[in-house]
Amino acid sequence: MKDALRREADQAGRISDADFQTLTALILDETGIRLPESHHRSVRRFVAGRLATLGMGPDRYLERLRAHSDEYDRFVAAVTIGETYFFREEKHFAVLESHLLPALFEAGRPCLWSAACATGEEAISLAAMAMAQGRGGAPFSVMASDINAESLARFSRGRFSENAFRRDGERFRHLLGPHIRREGGEYHLSRDLLSRIDIRRINLFKDNLDALADAFDVIFLRNVMIYMPMEARRDILTRVIPALKPGGALFLGAAEVPLVANPNLKLMEHEGVYFFRRKSIAEKIRGAGFDARLLDQLQRRREVEAAVRRFMPGGRREPHPVDTRRIMSYASQKLQNPLFRVEDDIDFSVAVQFLQIVCLINADQIAEARDLLELVDSVLPENEISLFLSGYLEMAANRADRARHRYARAIHMAHDFWPARFYLAMLTQDISPRQAYQEYHRCERDIMAYIARNAYHFHFLLEGFNARYFLSMCGKWIERLDRAGEGEAGP
Ligand SMILES: C[S@@+](CC[C@H](N)C(=O)[O-])C[C@H]1O[C@@H](n2cnc3c(N)ncnc32)[C@H](O)[C@@H]1O
To answer: Is residue 85 part of a domain?
Structure first.
């Protein structure tokens, strides 16, 4: 027994790579954060300190983390990054002041949420600005939340240091004047302002946010997803977006905007500041559409050349293997948010090329689209996306036979590729209505499964419409063919 305790005490203060990996996996699992390497040392130091104080080894510490909420809180406080200051990224506050808040006050009572508020400077900035706009009397609400209980406790005390004031943010500093006073080396926030903020502890990655559905006009979710992998970012957005009212505004940190693409969000730009709006139901049904101004940002030629060079380093000539599902998913995300990018991923580079081809087709630049498709095809093996686009170009050139052939091959390569099946059915109607009828039926089934899975990857191929539109078109054609006696019960 004594020996076991001594062994454990010996272990205390040391932490192996394997144990550290278990801890980083726990952080990812609990918070969505992939701990950046720059923080490994400090977290190791923190854990080593806890092991020494508690006199236990990593295994028991992990058990303790799971069983004791105070130990867990201490750990979360050590691993989260709470850097913040008043009116951070002041250009966001400029849009809020001049563009969003006046309309929100006009319409009623603005509801704002600082969704990863750390020690509260962001929420206080929001509240001070809303108070000034509402001239102290107009009602508004500000909620502030974070996963880090220690940060929230500091926030509730309403004490701030000089570090909470930076050059960025100076433009709006005067708004804090009536609410903050200096005492010694500290700044004290007025109880009046503090009491206007509803402070809560929320883990955006895990907690149920259903009660917040459609609650907010504006959400600040800034500088929290930057340390998260793509899947965690997607999970957090899926939970947070429903808390916005349709049409409500979502602000992310400037560096995070290109990391996010979501079918429920529309990227907005106001005087060089990017933010998102939650789409209304009508906008979702209309689909994304193509915005020529944003397309320019894709910098077509330069990206193509760079991508092709990367496919063939040192003159390599074999076709590059591709993951078509990933490519389509990336292209659809990029269509949604032209600033979206994934570094060092060949599938993403290919996706940009395919998206550009689609955009050229939609802008009626058929010859350019054909050139670019040829270029991309020269470095890729045969794949259903190329076949689909090539079918589309043949259709545009009135070569129905060739188009049918391309679509049929595309479906042969990917059986659930319903956009190709839809066009194949359309082109088959005249020559074989019975076959078209069957294709529409199969298409209908595949679209329903696609919608049920909340899939999104074909979006960039759908000419700005969404899957439901194609579903209703299938229904209409099936009905018509039925009436013409081409259905299964027909002659
Ligand atoms: C860098 S601060 C950002 C503060 C403020 N939004 C800003 O931009 O100045 C990031 C905050 O995100 C919080 N955070 C990290 N993961 C979270 C999660 N899963 N749920 C809620 N908050 C989280 C951290 O505790 C930290 O306070």
So the answer is: no
